[in-house]
Amino acid sequence: MTSIELNTYVVFGYLACGVGYLTAFVVSSKESRLRTVMFGLFVLVWVIHTASIGLRWIESYQMGIGHAPLSNLYESLVFFAWAMALALIVARLRFKSDLIVLIGLPLPFLTMGSTFLLNPEIKPLIPALQSNWLIAHVITCFLGYAGFAVSFVAALLLLFTKASEGLAKHLPQARILDEIVYRSVLVGLPLLTVGIVTGAAWADYAWGSYWSWDPKETWSLITWLVYSAFLHARLARGWTGGRTAALSVVGFAAVMFTYFGVNYLPGLHSYF
Amino acid sequence: MPGSKTGESGPSRTDSLFSEITTFFTSVRTTITLLFLLAAASIVGTLIPQDVNLDQLSRTAAPVYYRLTVILDLHQIYRSWWFLLLLILLSLNLLGCLLRRLPRIPGEWRGDSVKSSFSFTVSAPRSAEEARSLLVSAVGPLLGGSPQEIPGNDGLKLVWVKHRIYLLAFPLIHVAIIVILVGGLIGLLYGVKGSIQIKEGETGGTFAVIPSGKSQALPFQIALDKFTLKRYPTGEPQEFRSDVRILKDGKEIEKGFIRVNHPMTVDGISLYQADYRLLGVRVVNLLVVDSQGKRTEIAVNPRETTRLEGTPYKVRLRGLDPGSTGKGPWVEMTVESEEESPSTVRIYKNSSEPHQLTKAAVGFLGYEPLYMSGLQVGYDPGTNVVWTGCALLIVGFFLTLFTNLRGVEIELKSKGKTTVARISGRSRKMRREFREKVEATLREKLDAPDGPHTEDREQSDTNSQFRKTI
Ligand code: HEM
């Protein structure tokens, strides 16, 4: 089996997990065996996802153009979905909240699903992309983004609990959601920082300038500024609950724009 | 300051102005505002085209917009005076915070100027010694190691502190940002960027400054011996490489190569492979098979009509593709003879058989290209300052992530057979969890499920103290 076929199974695997989780929540409102089983299935799909990334790596070496599978939009989407699934698994284990997984599952599912629209062929690396800095850059950025994704999901839930008391009864306590919103940013921001720094190092080696206000760079800086503001609001000004949740949503919008939106700005280039 | 209210006494008025300024620069509210303003300005810079030519703009844009652009530097936002001003304000804000916070850190390190974030009292029907060893075995695993023991006048004090290093996170992170900004400023003031184009076999010593286009001399000369373009079998470029020698006063001081992602640094000046141009073809090598089947190789000068030995044909080169398509390199040439009218043929290098003409066959063996290599020249004395700042920033960030300053202090007092333990603790992160853990563990160990007092002083922890004073 090729990694491309494997990815198809992964997409439907995440869909199945989503449906299964939803069923588990509808059938019983309390902790149930079914939820544990669905979580197990989710982890299994993620392991297959991991294997597919590994397999693609091996395939590229078999083709004689070996490189880490992080070099174009298709590969980065697959990795992004993988990182978000990982973050959801970690959040589930750490905070024991199945709801985070249920609400978060559409993110890896849709991200993986969108790869159907792209050419999945393994291409050789053009000279500008032949850099270890680039690998470190992509990995850390997307792990950071995954942390922000979990924060975003918890922030949405938190805003729901604020919006409706009826809804709040079925959701995790606002206190726990608030913790998730904050802790995920606390993990995401250092990773994004390393991501920006390694990206700057790559740019310095490849083009002789560590920062050139390229729109992609600029938008990653904007994201970084928003989450820095989040952290200060929380740590030094004592913001919690709805206000930090709103900041987390704004931050994630910036993440999405950095990744997808930048290509639609007037007259620019982009590597992915 | 009572005097300032009346607004009559000069000194106190400046006093209050001074304190207002200090408050402004030490306030985290200012920080958050500045971060958002910087984000907003950066967004604008990605929406408005940057680095456009002002003269051109004056002819094409609306007059109002042109005026606005000139005043606000809208065509170069990231170098504009007001963007710089925001960065300077941020630096002053950082300095203000640091100056305010740094003096407190040694005290916090020693542990004397620390407020506890919670405290409670338990009493147990045990002797002081028993209680002590129980507590030590209970708290030890939580905070690692044995406590510092301080004998008091009527009892004993046990002190545990873990991860003091956490205290360095704040100064590291905030100093790092200043260092990075200073590095950037050094680059802005003293850095130079430019580009230089050199033909194979020639030497270059002056580059065009970016963006002004003025030419400037290098302190050395670059001799380009050879430029190589390697392609994957599929046709995509695999490697761009310039083999160069660096000359000073005609003498070779360094020899090496420059590839994309592998710059070469001479005297602090870095040379990067930026682009290349195929200027032309030096010679094309053809294989000619005459009517007897005799094979000869001939070199064709691209600018001349060449007679193919042993055949009635003359050829002249029309075009050459180095392999940008999946089909590999090809040449196109006009073939003519006395009997046949001129025709154009395209011959692929990868085809197994030579191209058949009526009275001969011609194959394409290869060519020697003539390239010009485009190098980028960069000198930025601020780069290492920036990297230093980045390293500090990352270390600081990971300290905040992976360490947490925690401490527990227990005062033991015995009255006859009962021992009263007053326990106070602090934690910079995860306060509630830490308190719950300490409390549960200690109560379980001491067998005292319902202690007399649990006063929750969560509200007076250091953060909210800080928040109130700012
Ligand atoms: C872009 C610039 C800045 C970045 C990236 C940044 C980053 C951070 C980070 C990561 C923390 C968490 C550290 C910790 O847990 O102790 C923090 C905390 C803090 N920062 Fe900044 N900071 C910046 C600018 C500023 C400025 C200008 C001020 C001045 C008012 C400031 C004041 C504070 C304060 C008061 C805290 C709270 C520390 C605590 O309570 O633990 N920061 N900052």
Protein described:
Chain A has 272 residues and is mainly alpha-helical. In chain A, 75% of the residues lie in helices and 0% in strands. Chain A has ten helices and no strands. In chain A, helix 1 (3-27) packs antiparallel against helix 5 (106-113) and helix 3 crosses helix 6 (132-163). Chain A is flat. Chain A starts with a helix and ends in a 13-residue tail after the last helix. In chain A, 51% of the residues are buried. Helices cover 36% and strands 36% of the residues of chain B. In chain B, helix 2 crosses helix 6 and helix 8 runs antiparallel to helix 11 (431-446). Chain B contains twelve helices and 20 strands. Chain B is an alpha+beta fold and 470 residues long. The complex binds protoporphyrin IX containing FE. Protoporphyrin IX containing FE (HEM) sits between chains B (26-28, 31, 90, 93-94, 97, 169-170, 173-174, 177, 397, 400, 463, 466) and A (228, 231-232, 235-236).
What is the secondary structure topology, with strand pairs?
The complex is a heterodimer of chains A (272) and B (470).
Chain A: H1 3-27, H2 33-62, H3 73-95, H4 98-104, H5 106-113, H6 132-163, H7 165-168, H8 174-207, H9 215-235, H10 241-259
Helix pairs in contact in A: 1-2, 1-5, 2-3, 3-4, 3-5, 3-6, 6-8, 6-10, 8-9, 8-10, 9-10
Chain B: H1 2-6, H2 10-26, H3 28-47, H4 54-60, H5 63-72, H6 81-101, H7 105-110, E1 118-124, H8 128-143, E2 148-151, E3 156-162, H9 169-190, E4 192-199, E5 203-209, E6 215-231, E7 237-248, E8 251-259, E9 264-266, E10 269-289, E11 295-300, E12 306-307, E13 314-321, E14 330-336, E15 343-348, E16 355-356, E17 361-379, H10 383-402, E18 406-415, E19 418-427, H11 431-446, E20 453-455, H12 462-469
Antiparallel strand pairs in B: 1-19, 1-20, 2-3, 3-18, 4-5, 4-17, 5-6, 6-7, 7-8, 9-10, 10-11, 10-17, 12-13, 13-14, 14-15, 16-17, 18-19
Bound molecules: protoporphyrin IX containing FE (HEM).
